[in-house]
Amino acid sequence: VDDLYGYAGDEFASVTVSFEVGTDAETAKTRVYDKLSSNYALRPYGVENLAIRSIDPEELPQVAFVVRYVGSTLSQTEALLSVRAAANILKESVKSAPKSAGIDLVGGYPNVVSVRLDSERLETFGLDAAGVVGTLKGTLGYRSVGSIESAGRKTVVAIDGGGDTPESLEAVAIGRKGDSTVFLRDVATVSRGPSDAEEFSFFLSESQSGATLDSPAAFLGVSKAKGSNAVTVVEGILEAVEAAKKELPSDIVVETVQNEGLTAEHATNELLFHLFLSIGIVFLILVAFL
Amino acid sequence: LKNAANAAFCIPMVLGIVFIVALVAGLDINRITLFALILSLGILVDDSIVVVENNARHLAERHKDGRTKKQAILDSVREVGLSIVLSTITRIVSFLGMFAVTGMMGDYMKPIPVFAAIALTASLFVAFSVNPFLAHAFHSEDPNARGHSEEKDSSVLLYYVALLKKFVGRGKRETARRKWLKPVFWISLALVVALPLALDVFRARMLPKADKDQVYLWIDLPRDRSAADSEMAAKLAGSILLDASGSLDSELRVVESVSAVSGGRFLPDFANLFRGSQNRTLSSQSNLRVNLKPAAERSASSEEYVIRVRPILREKILSAFPDATLRLLEDPPGPPTMATFHMKIKGEESLTLDQLTAFAESVEKTVRRIAVEKSVEDLSNTFSKTLPKLRVRLDSERMAERGVDARTVEAVLAAAFSNVSVGTLES
Fold first, then answer.
1. First to last CA, chain B
2. Which of A90, A288, B7, B385 is the most buried (most CB within 10 A)?
3. pLDDT, tens only, B20-47
4. Is any Cβ of chain B less than 8 angstroms from the Cβ of A179?
5. Does A267 contact B31 at a Cβ distance shorter than 8 Å?
């Protein structure tokens, strides 16, 4: 190991281990795994998830797209939700492109439904937030609880919370006050998107009139498989994106913002040109002097 | 022309051999290897030229000694064989020095000596096998056939000899000419050496800067600022760079678009991989990628652009966000590094983080003073700054009186101050 440095943020910390130049990446990764797992008991109290990730230039996106919203009817939150949804459609399509490896999606908001509890109203119904969270955790989702066997046939029994839309969530009963049932909508507001935005992603460009056009955006980066040719892989990815564009709403625009395939092609073509140029010059000199 | 074609034939042969060897050995053909081939192209033909030239002389002299074509070619190759082998070895050895380069740069340049060595060995092989064979095929058995009888000097050579004759010789005129030639030679040599140094033409650089079509901007607000504030700062920076108000020089109006994430991770890229971009996820941080117009459509290179736009950007951002830190970053020309100059401060384990940070801050002050003198533009730190903390101290006695337990308090507070994930909706 050449160098170690750490970085700590709120509720997470990362340590970067840099190995001496020339160390085999697989060996390095295995050693880190081995060291960590053999010393796992020494971790500080409260540390739960250890994830090991390699930083490898080979895994960087070769091509990146911006998925942006250019309409004007949606709010910022709604727009960020819809660009992320559109980016997910692209992601599915890009997966089929030959020799493409990892797909990295940043920006936009994931498809989240937020329940914002009103503490005053909770109190009037004699409820508390912890209880509501517990009820929702118990109600939502689909969990298998066992099976029934009768007449030699086996049937799986599962609990289905029944929630499938934000509206059905509002109708979840969370308690009783006197003779009436208290529903979630009585104590909370349910909305799509995160309740506290901790991240914004956008794309600024120049409109035709010269003004700055500010659109909510998500970014999609696609890397190539190790050892494959950047130029051809990127071509395949661009084709896949082009095909998926048809499925997107009309107010979502997809543009390429980074194309390493093109950069690699330019650089290689330039060098090849110079290679042939120097072959030509050498030949001319030979003709002149031999 | 026959001889020229024969010598030139070694180029495609050698390149072909190099590519086949690379394919078999599993080596990549990349920009560095192509560069290595261009670099060694000039010396690749040397072996062939010597062999072909000597072949031609021996073939031309056949009418004097009556050797057969085959015998003449064999004699010729034998004559120069050892010296060609030795000269090829010395040229390969001169490239081997590059293996001694250590660190990231060494790994980066490794293909150069490897490919140069392969190419030079291949050229030796071609000079000893293909060139004599082609000489045999190109020339007729009859020593008196056309083009063989006597070696003709080329016109360039004749001119050069005529030029030399004016200065070389024992005659008075030649001596007089040589006399003033001497000072001219020394003065021009001194000028060639001194002028570039005096005019500062050479700039020491590891690698030339690549004129990339993008630069990066990192904005850090104080740790306790919200993502909405970061977004405002990032949008301000973006609109300045896109020049919505039209106040920038036309040369600096080269930004096509700006991709940005405030308060979250941005797509990784080669330039910032080792600068710690993956850790930039705080809500007070913004990551911008500034997409420039293609290099052909702008006059300023990305480097000039960064140097010129940096003070303008800094002034405008700092007037709106006085405690912001800006870093305007470029793609590194070679292997990526964390920073040009990187200082790490460690302390005894008994030191608290605050003490260490205080010390680091005092070091930074000194460094900054020196750095500003040396016209350093970007200076940043990774001092730990934690958010202000509000402690809720539980009173077990009063909790017991009221019939609440610590777990309930924790769950209620967690639901109030953070996002609790409760499950999934399926539709």
1. 79
2. B7
3. 998 888 877 777 788 888 888 878 888 8
4. no
5. yes
